[in-house]
Write a structure and sequence with these properties.
alpha/beta, 2-enoyl-CoA Hydratase, Chain A, domain 1, Lyase 2-enoyl-coa Hydratase, Chain  A, domain 2, 10 strands
């Protein structure tokens, strides 16, 4: 059975659907490998302008596959080279929208935090419960959660394993938007579609600059922003978009065009 289903719900938008419903979409080695291959492919696909990733109504992803880990040694865990799978998502230049219903726990929460935008259903649950299993997050949970919601909220979640519901996650800054459960994927596709309709080079530079700026001092981040902003003035997309804006403004000031009156 295919662990990840690929769909194209809208022009420029590709949807990756985790497909292990019997295991609450637990991130098995095979699933992670399929996900890696899809992200590598979509990263270089000129027809892809935004990616939506989701699970099903019960779970986005309820963590790693414990059965494949319970007797693993440190050497065996290192040999799995999970970092290559996560790096394919982390380094993807296309905007990623996570559509989260149900459980997003452990690796599932870490997967959601690899996205640029998170749309959550009202009954979604986020958490890093690894401490309850005698381990800790290993795919960015200790780092991304702190950056998203601050040290003190993150420490509460990480050290107790306590989950965070969708509303708490939104208030804390982990979630972009909370919507009814039945509209999560639809809303995520709408958001991805809006992004896909924008100038691809501008979108790519915004994502690149935001992520790079988070890792450097403010003065350096502002320099990166200025250079990226100025460089976009050398693109055909910038010229076409600005000319279209001026033409629409001119027509708006003069009233309906003759063509529209025919």
């Amino acid at each position: 059975m295919t662990n990840v289903l690929l769909e194209k719900p809208e022009t420029g938008v590709y949807l990756l659907r985790l497909n292990r419903p019997d295991a609450r979409n637990a991130l098995s080695p095979d699933l992670r490998a399929e996900l890696r291959d899809h992200f590598i492919s979509l990263s270089s696909n000129p027809e892809c302008h935004a990616i939506v990733i989701t699970g099903d109504a019960k779970a986005f992803a309820a963590g790693a596959d414990i059965r494949s880990m319970v007797h693993a040694t440190p050497a065996e865990m290192m040999e799995r080279n999970d970092e290559a799978s996560w790096a394919a998502i982390r380094c993807c230049p296309k905007p990623i929208v996570a559509a989260v219903n149900g459980f997003a726990l452990g690796g599932g929460c870490e997967l959601a935090m690899h996205a640029d935008i998170i749309i959550a259903g009202e009954n979604a649950t986020f958490g890093q419960p690894e401490v309850k299993l005698g381990i800790m997050p290993g795919a960015g949970g200790t780092q991304r959660l702190v950056r998203a919601i601050g040290k003190y909220r993150a420490m509460m979640a990480l050290l107790t394993g306590a989950p965070i519901n969708a509303r708490e996650a939104f208030i804390a800054g982990l979630v972009s938007k909370v919507v009814p459960d039945e509209t999560v994927v639809e809303e995520a596709v709408v958001v991805a579609g809006r992004i896909a309709a924008m100038a691809p080079q501008a979108v790519a530079e915004i994502k690149r600059t935001v992520l790079a700026g988070m890792e450097v001092p403010l003065d350096t981040a502002l320099m990166l922003e200025r250079r990226a902003a100025y460089l976009l003035f050398g693109t055909l997309e910038q010229q076409a978009a600005m000319e279209a804006f001026l033409e629409n403004s001119r027509r708006g000031a003069q009233g309906p065009s003759l063509e529209n009156q025919k």
